[in-house]
């Protein structure tokens, strides 16, 4: 193979990049995108290496689910969640959702292991680095077309980027984030009567983010806090409304080396908060009340 990845590049793929490089979802209309040899070639590795690395991440997600299910409270929560055995669940998000060993893959394994007779349909509609604007643009194709029973939304983190050359504004203005989230909420209501499930963005660890050569932006807690306020004002289940699931202050153990994306342990925390919210939380309904006679 020409232009094959160096050992250093392969190490970067295995330890960081490849779990987010699901380019089949980014470019679904490319004629050759279903040719796995071609996809592997774009990454500078052969097909066997691609399949082996992706399988490693999938196994990590399954093992994390098995460990999670050793906790009695988790099993109790799963028994109480409102998702029925034959329903379709779509996860609509950014990198944390797109991650091959991310929270949605752990959640999927946890449900499939504990309810083996169920006929769930899980659709991972996460794409790395998506803002709410990016996600809204593809919502019809990636979410609504599946007519899901449940939609779990995990967006907003990348709206809050402050680019190195324009640090005085966020990439997506807060007013636009609000409009995007509201439009996503309204669109979900056209395909299901079940309320949306909103997962708030956790904080980042600035010291780690600054050391990451791939990124040329900052993310500030004040901006993330504003996005959480938008989400907690929506109808539906609100998962981790204060963004405390990675610790307070956030602990590096729960993140990858970039200080943004969760580690396997961080994803497990998100799944626990998700299950707890679904099982125990009163569904928020912050719409204006209708006048009653």
Please provide a written account of the structure.
- This protein is α/β, with parallel strands linked by helices and 293 residues long.
- The protein has one domain: Rossmann fold (3-Layer(aba) Sandwich).
- The chain is 44% helix and 10% strand.
- The protein has 13 helices and 7 strands.
- The chain has helices at residues 7-17, 23-26, 36-42, 47-68, 72-80, 95-98, 103-114, 132-137, 139-142, 174-188, 206-211, 221-232, 264-280, and strands at 88-93, 121-126, 150-154, 161-163, 197-199, 217-219, 237-239.
- It has a 5-stranded parallel sheet. It has a two-stranded antiparallel sheet with strand order 4-6.
- Helix 7 (103-114) packs across helix 13 and helix 10 (174-188) packs parallel to helix 12 (221-232).
- It is globular.
| Assembly of the depicted chains | single chain
Task: Give start-end ranges of low-pLDDT stretches.
Answer: 287-293
What is the structural class?
alpha/beta
CATH architecture: 3-Layer(aba) Sandwich
Task: Give the number of domains.
Answer: 1
Average pLDDT taken over every residue: 91
Identify the CATH class: Alpha Beta
Biggest sheet, spatial arrangement of strands: 2-1-3-5-7
Quantity of strands, as a count: 7
The CATH superfamily turns out to be SGNH hydrolase
| Overall 3D form | globular
Helix content: 40-55%
Radius of gyration: 19 Å
Q: How large is the share of residues in beta strands?
A: 5-15%
Q: Give the termini separation.
A: 74 Å
What is the CATH topology?
Answer: Rossmann fold
What's the total helix number? Answer: 13
């Amino acid at each position: 193979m020409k232009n094959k990845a160096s050992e250093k590049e392969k190490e970067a793929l295995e330890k960081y990049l490849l779990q987010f490089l699901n380019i089949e979802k980014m470019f679904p209309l490319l004629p050759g995108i279903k040719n796995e040899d071609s996809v592997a070639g774009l990454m500078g590795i052969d097909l066997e290496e691609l399949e082996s690395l992706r399988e490693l991440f999938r196994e990590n997600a399954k093992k994390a689910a098995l460990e999670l299910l050793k906790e009695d409270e988790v099993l109790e929560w799963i028994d109480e969640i409102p998702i029925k055995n034959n329903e379709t669940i779509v996860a609509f998000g950014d990198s944390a959702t797109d991650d091959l060993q991310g929270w949605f893959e752990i959640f999927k394994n946890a449900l499939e292991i504990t309810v083996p007779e169920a006929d769930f349909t899980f659709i991972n509609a996460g794409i790395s680095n998506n803002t709410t604007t990016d996600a809204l643009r593809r919502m019809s194709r990636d979410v609504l077309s599946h007519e899901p029973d449940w939609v779990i939304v995990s967006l907003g983190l990348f709206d809050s980027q402050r680019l190195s050359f324009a640090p005085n504004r966020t990439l997506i203005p807060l007013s636009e984030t609000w409009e995007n989230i509201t439009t996503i909420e309204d669109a979900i209501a056209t395909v299901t009567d079940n309320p949306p499930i909103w997962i708030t963005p956790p904080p980042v660890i600035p010291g780690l983010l600054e050391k990451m050569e791939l990124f040329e932006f900052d993310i500030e807690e004040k901006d993330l806090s504003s996005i959480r306020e938008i989400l907690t004002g929506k109808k539906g289940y609100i998962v981790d409304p204060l963004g405390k699931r990675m610790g307070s202050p956030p602990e590096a153990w729960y993140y990858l080396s970039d200080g943004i994306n969760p580690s396997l342990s961080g994803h497990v925390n998100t799944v626990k908060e998700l299950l707890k919210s679904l099982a125990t939380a009163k569904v928020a309904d912050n719409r204006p009340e209708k006048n009653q006679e």
